[in-house]
Amino acid sequence: MAGVPYSVPTSQVRKDEILHHSHGRAPWYDMQGVPSNAYVIGIAGGSASGKDSFYRKHNEQEIKLAFQNDLDLDHPDAIDTDLFIKCLRDLKQGKVTEIPVYSFKDHQRLDETKYLYGASVIIGLRELYDLKVFVNADSDLMLARRIRRDTSERGRDVEGILNQYLRFVKRAYDNFIQPSSRYADILKDIRSAFNQIVPGFQNEVSVRLLVTHIQQQLDSRAMRFRNQLGQRGMEQHSRQQSLEQVSLGKEINSATGKRVRVPENTVLLDQTNQLQGILTILRDKDTDRSSFIFYADRLSSLVVERSLQLLPYREKTVTTPVGLTASGKEMVAEDLVGITILRSGGPFAQGLRRVIQDVKLGSLLIQSDPASGEPLLFHTSLPESIKKRALAKNTVVFLLDAQVGTGAAALMAIRLLLDHGVRQKNIVFLTFLAAPQGLTTVSAAFPGVRVVTASVGDKIEEREFPVNAHIILRKAAGDADFSVHQADSHVKPFKSATMNLAENHEVESVTQHAWVISPDIGNPGSRYFGV
């Protein structure tokens, strides 16, 4: 069973990181934040067909029999079916899951598990499959493959392999596996060439057809609504500004003193002279990088401190150094982590460390498709308290991003946390600047998530900018060095339709449309990190 093609660990990244290959993972949910089910393909066949991870945990007597090749591991009862169903159902619903790891050298399921998340198409019980494929291979070929695998990978001897094959494997194939081929089905559009049963040898055509079908399912699940978010946000915000009902939110002063309406779950820092002075420095295009870093760190500390006031505390009594008793408070949260949306959320990391000692940090790399402006998830690095759902439900997460414009990146980041088991009430979104429209979008999808911001802009507006062609081409090539909110944009088609990218021809005019918060602070990630 595997997720295709996103969460694929590689040797180039740290153990806690997942690198999302290809063009990044597009939104797997709608504008209300509701995820769509993954497409599940079940592949059945003879020996070594992919069920091995879910062998049951063996007792000492069973392990002894296994080393003597006397344990039947090919009977359906050898499989932990309940766990398999749970893992497959979680993946189909878009949730994170933990796949067991089985050691064939030790004949035992290990305590460690394999983290798996992010599948839009799953190749994995019959009731859960959307497409069922049976791989039909010659029995001699299957035996030869089994001998080669077990001698080279599992340290078995040929005599033991043949004995186990004749006693258990072939009997299980004849009694359980081969009869299941009658349930195989392939969609009508590829039935004529693919049929119901796939040959297990020289099957390149069948594989290509299956891969094409998988790609179609991936494309059909790619949500595209960035521009709808921007337009819907402006429309909803305009309607709210024209209504007086307090139930639709609350009115606050924007960065320019204009009265705007924001959702009730929005927390705005007190607009003191000190805070407005810091924001003025950050907005000034002439502020040098060292000053920008200093004041961004100060601002992030203020936002973090305000966010901590939203968390529950309980009474605690301590003894002072001179032996007196003092009553105080302690935080209730079992674990608190910070997750930065790279690179725009990067400036928050230093401020978070200043306020919360030994805080655990993770990150998400969310950038946009240069052609459509849709958010794409390229990379995740999450602490164990989020990767394990049993822990995630009691973990408080500070989600860090410098700006909330249309809310597209915020929706993706929050959806990812919910898929891992984090509760909405335990997510606090920290930001420097937010547009009322983006706040409306986030609140409509996830009303339990609170947003703490230092400033609220008047509005977002779509503006057009001239862009150097080589920058556009670098983005189109998948360059990951562009921050989230430069990614809040979409690129107009090249006016030169005959342009050959390989020849690097010049383009007369290339423009980029971007959703801009008014008044803005530029690109915080680029200004902070100097890139």
TrEMBL record:
Descriptive protein name: Uncharacterized protein
Protein's organism: Naganishia friedmannii
Upper taxonomic lineage: Eukaryota, Fungi, Dikarya, Basidiomycota, Agaricomycotina
